[in-house]
Amino acid sequence: MAKFTFDLSAEDGSARTGIIGTPRGxxxxxxxxxxxxxxxxxxxxxxxxxxxGADILxxxxxxxxxxxxxxxxxxxxxxxxxxxWPRPILTDSGGFxxxxxxxxxxxxEKGVTFKSHVDGSKHVLTPESSMEIxxxxxSDIVMCFDECPALPAPRDAIATSMRLSMRWAERSRVxxxxxxxxxxxxxxxxxxxxxxxxxxxxxxxxxxxxxYAIGGLAVGEGQAAMFDCLDYAPGFLPRDRPxxxxxxxxxxxxxxxxxxGIDMMDCVLPTRAGRTGQVFTRRGVLNIKNARHADxxxxxxxxxxxxxxxxxxxxxxxxxxxxNEMISGMLLTWHNLHFFQQIMQQMREVxxxxxxxxxxxxxxxxxxxxxxxxI
Length: 375
Hints:
By secondary structure, this protein is α/β, with parallel strands linked by helices. It folds into 2 domains: 32-266, Alpha-Beta Barrel (TIM Barrel); 274-369, no CATH class. The protein is 42% helix and 20% strand.
């Protein structure tokens, strides 16, 4: 079986572009991973997601273990066959969802006991069970089990949580074992404390992983604080392994993260925003529900080649959104995912050409212009 590989092809400052190789296909970096929480990217067909330019999707261990269950997915041929996505899939460990969704959770050295947000049933998630669930799902990139405290938090609490996550990372590595063609990523924690981030990175490097994630950001600290952390945190991680920033983010977050050396990101924002009428464009964000669009025959963006812009007017998209028609969420989600993947493709190109700084300046200037004038 083919191995998991990572080849850097160009660097421009701290920004990097390259290829992650997996048995199920290549992942071009920097990469944005659409989130398929419950084995589906909401409002999208898998082939439509691929058409936007996505090379890899993210699945949620917590949601899939509760419904339909990892054993059932395994019996039905694994997550790729189950959801009709033959390309790479990354699954998170379940730790973040336990923190944010589960009720009455109890944290111990062993793991986390929690009540399901679906039916109130009791479950225990440990590093070992998280590895087993992700093995049953068959994901190509597996995340080690960790705890992610919300920020702000006291330094002592962040340090205690990080060190627990590092012990869990070691147990995750042992439980993962040797799985040719599959990769295990460690997760750096440490909040906004530079020394704790460095301590976490040293612990992860000593264990040894196929890739490394930066966790515990985009959890309430704000963009400026996140960027301050990213100014140093990626440099603590091995240069020859992929770096994944979890749960990010807005277009400006993504561009700023790539500038600081991040290779992979994921976020529910483009799909969730599409379902609520929020549209991302090269000239900033617009709300299709606003009355100013009701008589506008123009597309969302005349330079965009997605189906929403190619074939439908703002007036139509406004109408179907206000009428609660399903096609609204479908078209606006497609547009948002297309826009996010277009940003990634542009960054890959300009990094390879050594033009990232100029492109970034133009990107921010165009975003600041705002939407086109009403007719």
